[in-house]
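Action item from last meeting closed. Structure (83 res):
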């Protein structure tokens, strides 16, 4: 799924987001995988103090972690990289 379309799906309130889709969206905002600690995938951005934590639960991203990610994007005025 294209990143922009996926972002629109998430912003429309869908909670049915696959883990791999969420990882690709996080990376499209400039975050890089820093480490994996158990089921937690920790992403860092060079210009943002916050980390992004995503867990794979039965192939899906956790809804509360998606909300946390969107809040970080909004707080830091991050933009989606061009595809």
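Sequence:
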């Amino acid at each position: 799924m294209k990143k922009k379309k996926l972002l629109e799906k998430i912003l429309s309130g869908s909670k049915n987001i696959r883990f791999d889709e969420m990882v690709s969206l996080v990376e499209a905002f400039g975050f890089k995988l820093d480490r994996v600690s158990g089921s937690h995938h920790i992403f860092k951005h060079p210009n943002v103090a916050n980390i992004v934590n995503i867990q794979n639960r039965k192939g899906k991203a956790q809804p509360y972690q998606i909300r946390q990610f969107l809040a970080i994007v909004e707080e830091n005025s991050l933009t989606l990289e061009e595809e």
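Note appended to the action item: The CA atoms of residues 28 and 82 lie 8 Å apart.
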